[in-house]
Design goal:
By secondary structure, the protein is mainly α. About 70% of the residues lie in helices and about 0% in strands. It contains 9 helices and no strands. The chain has helices at about 20-45, 50-55, 60-65, 70-95, 100-115, 120-125, 135-165, 170-190, 200-215. Helix 1 (about 20-45) packs across helix 2 (about 50-55). The longest helix is centred in the first third of the chain and has 28 residues, at about 20-45. The two termini are about 30 Å apart.
Length: about 220
């Protein structure tokens, strides 16, 4: 799956950033991408700002123009991952296609994303609570907010599907969170030990997840 494209600001928009600000945003993103690779390779504790700066081809001092600390940079890398995942949901739901077809498209893309970014996804699961004990509650709340944000486009899609009669009434936010969580946990705990290596295998995993979500484990109660 090609890398998720970022939306560029419209040139004719009054709120479009200046050239200087666009350059700053570009440099910041280069640092974040370099940090993702270094964190995935070494883990949070062993990763160094020196290696991140070297990979980004900046001086270490430049990093401090964008991030206050390694923890701040790790949070930015985590935000970048959640941004990618939300973008996938936005892309597949924007046209409001049929329920099963749209969910299959989303599951396929997300499984592909996890497959291609597995080292950092695994790191995130292992170390997102690496911070001091007194800050754990704050970090949990941050991640919960990000998950809700990631699921928001799906929740809106489920509202439309309910109005169209494709789903029975139910809380669309809960459904969206359940579906995102199902894909995440299925891939990280079931598929990852023997990751799919072909489009056919990825599609098979996606069909299974969508079937479980729509029909349940027992194969009854579809669209309920």
């Amino acid at each position: 799956m090609p890398a998720t494209k970022r939306r560029k600001p419209r040139v004719n928009s009054p709120a479009a950033p200046s050239r200087k600000e666009r350059e700053r945003q570009s440099r910041r993103l280069e640092i974040v991408h370099a940090a993702r690779t270094v964190f995935a390779r070494h883990g949070f504790n062993s990763a160094t700002l020196e290696e991140i700066a070297e990979r980004a081809e900046f001086g270490k001092g430049t990093l401090y123009n964008y991030f206050d600390s390694k923890d701040d940079l790790f949070t930015a890398v985590m935000d970048d991952l959640f941004h990618d995942v939300r973008a996938i949901a936005e892309e597949v739901t924007v046209n409001g296609g049929a329920l099963e077809e749209t969910l299959l498209d989303y599951a396929t893309r997300l499984i592909d994303y996890y497959r291609e970014n597995y080292p950092f996804c695994r790191l995130l699961m292992r170390e997102w609570l690496h911070t001091e004990p007194e800050a754990v509650d704050r970090r949990v709340a941050q991640v919960q907010r990000r998950v809700r944000d990631v699921a928001a486009p799906l929740a809106q899609f489920f509202r439309r599907a309910t109005r169209n009669g494709e789903m029975h009434r139910g809380d669309p936010d809960i459904r969206a969170n359940l579906f995102v969580g199902l894909i995440h946990h299925y891939y990280m705990h079931v598929a990852a030990p023997n990751p799919p290596t072909s489009r056919r295998a990825v599609s098979a995993h996606a069909r299974l997840v969508v079937s479980l979500f729509l029909n349940g484990v027992a194969g009854i109660g579809a669209r309920s």
